[in-house]
Structures are given as C-alpha cells and as structure tokens.
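Help wanted!
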Amino acid sequence: MLFNLRRKLFSLIFILNLAFVFLGGMMTESRDYLSEKSKIKPLTAADLKKLVPENISGWKAVSEDQVFDPETIFNYINGAGEVYRSYNFRLLIARRFQKPEKPDLVVDLFDMGTSYEAFGVFTHDREGENVEIGQMGVYKGGLLSFWKNRFFVSVYAEDETQETKEAVLELGRQIALRIETEGRLPDLLHFLPEARLDRETVCYFHTHHILNYHFFISDENILQLGPETEAVLAQYKDSGRLPVFLLVVRYADENQALYAWNVFCKNYMPDARIPGEIKVEDGTWTVAKTRGRLLVAVFQASTDLEARSLIDNVLLEK
Amino acid sequence: MKKRAITRRDFLKKAATLPLAGTFIPAILERKGKRKEQVPTKVRVVLVREKDVLDEKGKPRYEVIERIMDEGVCALFGTSNAREAWRQMIKADDVVGIKTNVWNYLPTPKELEDYLKKRVMECGVPEEKIAIADRGVLNHPVFQRATALINARPARTHHWSGMGTCIKNYIQFVPRPYEWHADACADLGKIWFLPEVKGKTRLNILVMLTPLFHGIGPHHFSKEYIWPYCGLILSQDPVAADATGLRILLARRKEYFGKERPLQPAPHHIFYADTRHHLGVSSSERIELIKLGWQDGILI
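Answered by r_m:
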C-alpha cells in the first residue's frame, strides 16, 4: 500500500518536472550569457588606457602602465587571478599614481568582455558603503569598486586618509565618465523574486568554485557548473533564524539541466523520500527543481512549504 | 565522479561536534585511523609575542626580533640557549635556502631574514651557501643544492586558498603554481613531498606581527584589516603552525566583526595537509602550544 503510494508520488513528480522542462524551454528564450558572449568585440590595452586619467588632485601617473591577460595575471595578483579568470576576463591595465609625501593610488581596470561578467566579478566582493559612481559603486577601507558596461574598476589608496578618499572617489568618477554607456544586468537576475530579497547578497557566476566561495555545496561539481552555465545566488529572509539561499542556474540546454538536477539529487539528497526535497541535518529544508534550462534550488528554508513557495515565485517571475 | 562527493550536509553532521568545523569542510571527513601512527602524538608549536616588537611606524625592531626568535627556538627545541637550538637544525655542511614571501603588502620582514641568515652563519654555514628568496627558487642555484630549508612568511587571508600559510609558501617550488589552484588549493600539502623540498624543512615561522585577517578588492588588502598582534609562530610542523595561526585569525575576525565569520573560501588545504597528505597535525588536541611573552589580546 505504502509502496504503491510512494510510486504514484514519484510518477507525479516526474511528470511535473517534465512539465517544468517543457514550459521552461518556452519561457527562457532571452538574452542569455552565451548570446552576449558571442557579440564580444576585442579591445586593446590602448583602448583601456584612454579610460583612465593621467592625473588627479595632484597625483600623477608614474612609469608605464602594466598590462596583464588571463595568462599573466598571476604575476600581478597571485592566486586572486583565478577569480577574474572565472569570469572570463580579457585584459587588465594597472596604473599607479604618486604625489609627494602621500600614499600611492592604484587603478586596476579590467575588460571583462561583457557587462554580465563585469557585474558578476563585482558581486564577488561587494563590501562597502554605496557610492554614486559607475554602476553600483562601493567604497571601503581605501578601496573603490564599481562596474560599468563591460568594465570592472578598482581604485585603491595604499593608505586611507580623507585626502586619499576624495582622490580615489574623484578618480573613479572620471573613469566612470569616460566609459560612455551603462551595461545590462544579466537577465538571469529577473528570475529572482523581489519579496524579502536581500539585494546586497546577489552574486552572479559560472563555476562551482565561486559558488563554494559564497555558499559551500560540495567539493565535487555536483551541479555541473562550468564556463557555459550561468548562475545567480541570493539570500532571502524567511521565518527561520538563518537566511534562505536561492540558487538559479541556467544551462546550455534542457538535457543538461535535467542531468544536473539528477546528479545533484543523487549526491546531495540520496536519502530523499520525495526526489528533490529533503530536511537536512540542521533542521532546514533543501528543495531543488528543474524547469527548461533552469535548475532552481533553495537551501536553509525553515519549512518545505517556504522552500517550495520561493521556487514557485521564481517560476512566476517570468 | 569517482569518489563520493562531500557535501554541505556532511559538514552539518559534524559541525555541532567539532570546533573549527566551519573552516575545514570537508577535510574533517577524511581522517584515517592509520595516520596516528605516522606522526608524533603531539607536536610543539611556540607562539612568542612582544608588545614592543614594532616601532612607532610599524617597522619591526631587529633587536626585539632577535630576542623573541631566540626565546622561541629555545622553547621549541627545549634548549637553554639559542645557539644549541640552531645547531640542532643546521649543520656546518648544509646548504640553506630561506624561503620567504615577497608579497608587496605584507612581505617577510627584512629584520627576520637578517636574523635567520645570521644564526645560520653562526652554525658554520658560509654566506655563499645561504640564499634568501621567494619567486624563482626553483631555478635558484643555492635552493637547487639546498640540504636544509627555513620557511618564513606572514599570515594572511587569501583570495583563493582562504589563508596564506607556511604550507602554501612552497607553491613556488612547482613550475606552474596555477595547476595547484583547484578546490581552493586543496592539495598544497602534496608539494611538500616533491624532491625539491621533501624532508628538508628545519623550521617554519608564521609571521604574526601584523596579520591580515580580512581582504577586499583585487589585491585583497587594506590596512583596515591588519592589526599589531606582535607575534611569531614557530614549529617544525607547518600544518600545526598554520592551524594555530588560523585559530588566531578566526578569533580576530569574530572580535572585529562581532560574530563568527568563516574565511572565504575555507582554508581546507591546511586540514587536507593533515588528513589527506599526512604532512602534520591540525587538531589543537594534538598540538602542544607554548605561549611566551606578551599575553594581552592573545586570542588563543
């Protein structure tokens, strides 16, 4: 009796997932990462250099600009270069500014190829107070970061004073002005429900290393993430003591999404009574579903109902 | 996937029972019963601090470095004077490579390098058989002939490996360091078994004078996130030295941020060096920690 009930339940869930796959396939035709990537026009170091002023508030550019590509970036920022490589960065110019008796300022201007990548790498580390510079500028501890169009920009003072802070912000403004147009946000973000979303926690990425940086899932790539997938992770407030994490991944095709869902369920919740739904060891719920090219997962929900509700809201967003 | 994936759920199962679990996901799950036979029951780590080790500009004072290093090696080797301790580490016929770290924002202090070179020379090693270097050690003629290594680097958080550690400091001994970046540099401990370095390290010094406990931006540095801890961690076991340094960094993060804030990414290479590569020990239960000098704000 119980066995029959369980079998019927599994069949129902399988059919529902198929329906999600079908509907999702129709509903996710949009400007995704792969189509943006195909339009990239290469820029040269000279193009980038034009975007950075030669002097600011008495600080002057010194020596030659340093130029790095994905192979040489480790010579400049060691292992941190992996972060920028994870976002397919193209070119970096670094310009140092000096003023007698004052701390140096350093501008790092990254050409990320697309605005999606520029936004993505910005979301990797977005600590700081919001400032009206570029797109989503933040400032903290002598460091200004922002993105605009296909560029990610960091302006850094080696010692923070009121004077360096003003110079850093002004330098940022000048660079932002020279980047003429703003960039589009990844359209995957449109899947995030607005209600109870903590906007400052939204991260956009491709690889499981970056996912693990923000929220550890597994030492293995059980979600089948990679350069051709795009993902967004965000935190939501719910009735529990922990924030709820919502992960939306878009794969190259529906088969990959379904395969990833299967691999995830097999590894993350082999003991699930209902495929894709499990109450985990800390008493919270993890629920994962696929829809077309999308895989949607919720972690740390206080109840299964809340987890399903959040996923349903993702589906309603489009 | 050949091996069973370790997931967040495995961590959740262990988190309630193990201290520091948040930092060593998922290495905690790889403990092997046999490893107890491969390392001593307890390894010694010395933490030595001196309030006045930095001058008013934050520069290390050589005479204080010399004094606390001497105290530290005496405690580490159980000797009554530093010369005796150094002679346990270095023989006159050794060729000695002092592996430092040149990271622009927080390099190995020159004063410590000078101290190390001086003590090595006092062991009878001629100057031409001593080298101090970081990048390029693989092709350095002295390092290529080295029979003894001394490993000295500052402690800091790290964008990709979670923490810049004594273990990680040997990444320059491989031709393509980026090949070791997978899974937050999980297998750095394996480097220590390459012929260039295996069995040669006589002393590890994790410099805790002004550790970096949090990083921002492409350069992962802001002076806001260093503090004058004024300490040095000494051990012959790099894993034990790093695990001790990590505990201090985590305590400082808790103090600064007002809540537990695990490192991102988790520096599990420290714990994999223990559980997977059996390079040393990471558990505080298996570390004999000797604390010398200034005790205020010790955080451990």
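OP: Thanks! One thing I noticed: The first helix of chain B runs from residue 8 to 15.
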